[in-house]
Amino acid sequence: MAGGFSGWSFVPLFVGMIGAVGIGQVAPSGPPKAGVRSLAEDWHGTKVVDNYRWLEDGASADTRKWVAGEMAYTRSVLDPLPGREGIHKRLTELLGIGDIGVPKIGGKFYFYTRRDGLQNQPVLYVREGIDGRDRSLVDVNSLAADGSVSLDWFFPSEHGKYVAYGTSSNGSEMSTLHVVETKTGKLLPDTIERTWAAASVAWLPDNSGFYYTRYPKKGDVPAGQERYNRHVFYHELGTDPERDELIFGEGRDAEDWPDVSLDNDGHLLLISVAQGSTKSELFLMDLKKGTPPTRITTGKNFLYSGSVYNGRVYIVTDEDAPRYRMFVTEAGVYDRDDWKEIIPQTGGVLKDASVWGGKIFARYEQNASSQLKVFDLQGNLYSNIDLPFPGTVFGSGGKWDHDEVFYGFESFTAAPSIYRYDLEKRSASLWAKVDAASIDAAAYEVEPEWYHSKDGTRVPMFLVYKKGLKKDGHNPTLLTGYGGFGVSLTPSFERENFLWLERGGIYAVANLRGGGEFGEEWHRAGMLDKKQNVFDDFAAAAEYLIAEKYTDRDHLAIEGRGNGGLLMGAMITERPELFRAVVCFAPLMDMLRYQDFPVGRLWVPEYGTAEKPEGFKWLYAYSPYHRVKSGWGYPAVLFIAGESDSRVDPMHARKMVAFMQSVSKRPVLLRVESGAGHGAGTRIQEGTDIYSFLFWQLVVKP
Hints:
Blueprint: E1 39-43, E2 46-50, H1 61-78, H2 84-95, E3 99-100, E4 104-106, E5 109-115, E6 123-128, E7 134-138, E8 149-156, E9 162-169, E10 176-181, E11 187-192, E12 201-203, E13 209-214, E14 231-236, E15 245-248, E16 257-262, E17 268-274, E18 280-286, E19 294-295, E20 304-309, E21 312-317, E22 325-330, E23 340-343, E24 349-356, E25 359-366, E26 369-375, E27 381-385, E28 392-398, E29 404-410, E30 417-422, E31 427-433, E32 444-452, E33 458-466, E34 477-480, H3 497-502, E35 506-510, H4 520-524, H5 532-547, E36 556-561, H6 563-574, E37 581-585, H7 604-607, H8 613-622, E38 636-642, H9 651-661, E39 668-673, H10 680-698
Parallel strand pairs: 34-35, 34-36, 36-37, 37-38, 38-39
Antiparallel strand pairs: 1-2, 3-5, 4-5, 5-6, 6-7, 8-9, 9-10, 10-11, 12-13, 13-14, 14-15, 16-17, 17-18, 18-19, 20-21, 21-22, 22-23, 24-25, 25-26, 26-27, 28-29, 29-30, 30-31, 32-33, 33-35
């Protein structure tokens, strides 16, 4: 999703850490003191003082010195904790459980990613024919020994002759596009910079070129705008990318986020443009006639996605249907009154639908678990696809001329598996699965629960724990949530969690408002002026766990990242009495200034902006950095940030740590990563620190 946090890789935070305590160095007795440099500003008639504005400059000598001191202090606290060797050993085994992606089809070829053992990054494989042998096509692990080069995305050409793929270094996500020939593995000279991690590519059927999205280079836009102004270009193979034709984006809002796709004939280019998390538009360009992109949608504040097949546009939207529905219209017919509804809104949420093999393959969510349905092109139900148990379909792929669709499935205790669905036979078969032999899935129970939030709203929550658990009020419990951007927290296979579960811990996932579990109404009930609902929902989840004797305050920890990190900050400053420990990843803490860093302006439709009086009122009311007070009994907190994070600037964590350390009696630790990759090898070290911290605070035997 454009501008959202979902789908981010875990930020590994150990290899290359700044200022770790070395041999012969004396461990610090406490954290370095951050100097107070008060800066007072007037925000719409309210005086706001910022004592740590200087820590926003990550390149300054003063900031780097302070961060180095914080790293040394963090190591001095975490390294001596008992059981780290055993934690490290078990995490090594758990993270050695591989991973697999859903295949993409290109002609007779099947392309998919797979990570085996402790490989830092997944490898792109190709299989010729459904029963052919797998062959490694792109292995970025060979490009950097520390796993700091990542494979961000890939798009096969129509018949699989070529694959366009993106790589980036040090977690920057600023991808470079490459093209590889499938048959030989030879790289073409075509290299395109500035495509970013979420690039979109649409190949012409004859493999001669592709439409794609790209960002401006420095100097072409005002400073700080390089991660905005995402435009669509056309590239012909063998030509200079700097001369690629600009297709779409000029003169539009800098925050627009276009994606591209082509119809089955290669004549119609569909451009979908996200404008924040609640609005998008569709444009159609007839390549055969040479017409410019023409808007299909109405400009209303709704979300639209689509695909084009045999001259018809199939549109999924929440327009007057918060749980989504599907329309169809003839390409080139732009009158809204000519749209025909073919799949109406139901009780479940229609998350996405694509036309493959002459059928509509649709993914629904019901109570935060996936469902799959297949319809014919008139919207009549063709088949229901049975899933093994409540869980998550994490991807799907097919082609217009293939009678097969692939989808991935996982759950809390079920490792990822890939299934192949035969559209003609209406049957599914297992295509590949991840070996998770080191986990006894039968030893655990997944329990869906419902609780009431502060305003009486019923909110669901998943609990995972060992069978036979006693509700004695003292079980170590780790609660997580997200609550934003319409992102659903559905059952997922998190390898590290088994270290917690094996030691008698409870893992809890709350499906808060702001997410997409119950459609767009649920999302909008937790954004802008209603963001407090998210925090109230999460606090109510903690209260429920305590009231039902699952745990107590001294055995309850919470974690979240990105938008979930903001949630953690709100819990620290609003309800500190509920929690013993907090792990806060890549957080937003200063909500008055978040929009001024990396890609923050993409999130203004979700949060609002303090630049406007109304937005200031909402944001200042909960901005965690501005709610820190002396005299409060704050929980212990481990803040984790990435120095090269391209989305959430580490300044948020730096400022929050400095402020909290000045008032908190419990440990407040900062862990900053300097230039490492997103691979499993570094996640072992990160996890060792996280679980050492949690076991220490919740008095769990390592």
